[in-house]
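S.,

Sequence below, as promised.
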Amino acid sequence: MKRKENNSGSGLKIIPLGGLEQIGMNITAFEYEDSIVVVDCGLSFPADDMLGIDLVIPDVTYLKDNIDKVKGFVITHGHEDHIGALPYVLRDINVPIYATRLTMGIIENKLKEHSLLKTKRKVVKFGQSINMGQFRVEFIKTNHSIVDAAALAIYSPAGTVVHTGDFKVDYTPVFGDAIDLQRFAELGKKGVLALMCDSTNAERPGFTPSERTVGTTFDGLFEEHKNTRIFVATFASNVDRVQQIINTAYKFGRKVCVDGRSMVSIIDTARNLGCINIPDNTLIEVEQLKNYPDEKQVIITTGSQGESMAALSRMASGMHRKISIGPRDTVIFSSNPIPGNEKSVTKVINELIRKGADVIFQDAHVSGHACQEEIKLIYSLIRPRYAVPVHGEIKHLKAQAKVAQSLGIDKDNIFILSSGDVLELSDSGAKVTGRVPVGAILVDGLGVGDVGNVVLRDRQHLAEDGIMIVVMSLDRASGQMVAGPDIVSRGFVYVKESDELIEGARQTVEDALQRCLDKGITDWGKLKNTTKDILGDYVWKKTKRRPMILPIIMEV
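The prediction came back faster than expected:
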């Protein structure tokens, strides 16, 4: 297969294929001569104007063009914005996957759904290194809002790059050990070429509180609402948060029910791998809730981001088949809305309040990302020659660049990249040497990439203006109109109350088409264009709207 080269020489190329200038869709290629290692392979969720789209995944054309170089995917942790695109990308780039145990457990659930379990997989322990062509990749223990998150030390002949993944510095994590700051310091002493650091909270001063502080908050909330049934909505993948909810529920003698398909799946995986400890006889099924009084129940559910089909949203709208929420219920939102989800979350909160529930949506969450002082700590330990902020929108990347400058890193050694940029690091320095193809591939149902900008524009047009379909029949021999034109409208006007408008439109089109036919014009393309132009002008004059117009000609 033909390789697509960016530049000659034997420098280390860092090529972000997604994840910059946005939250989500994290994927970065590291290339040295005949080897490419890919860090993460995430998805993002559709913007408001992507009507009908389920997921957005990165364009990996560059990896396809260089498939013989790609040695594998190295995954930092198990969140959707870092692993969600794997089942789609592996169809074309089926190379080994390396990840820690819980991350791999979640990935395997996805691969099972997509019948991709033949893909080679290797579970890696912290401190372990994997040789991948010209690269060696070491997994380093960090803390995040999911267990088994890792930073990566990527060794190449050109030097060492440290990629933090999503992280925070938590000295008292709920499960497992604290972040391995000693290893970061050891790498710093040996010399690090570049640091790629999480920028999500780079605008926030101070430190991110420990995850354990949420446990104390839950204790207070459960004490305050001990006579009500308690619902807690959080991210499905936040296993440590679920652990603390279970700990508090057990302390207060409550039974715990987990509802929401994604959360049930992840908790089962975490339990099988020993990443969560659930006391005996604490967890119950939805069907068993009727056996216990409300004040002895805790329901942990998905839907903290207002997702329309998540369990909490269905409960709030009365669509859940087994659980309904009422005035004797307390609902705790243990998360902050992801940017763009605020309206959806507010809608669910209002529906819950309308049902009489007591809704708590403050103080029951801490971030999983490092704030400025933790970012400073990592920079101070690693002392990189170059800084490459990652994970975030441009404002987050710029905020981290300011932090790096405040620590003495030269402005010329800080690179704010865009997805697709090729940053080449070598003995002679660092510079952006070119670009590779990048973009967003839209997933709609089972279709991957078959919905593009043209289809989205049509959907936008239909959503905003509706459609008018004009149906007519022409005689094959004479070319004369023998039936129609008939007009069918959807999403434009309510036909039963717009008889005069529709009849006027029909008559206008009929007159125009008849003039064409009288002149001997029987070309279907010209007749369709005439219909669009005449009808479009008529409707605009009458309504100041521009619906999509679809002429259909049948030959009889």
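The chain has a mean pLDDT of 88.

Coffee later?
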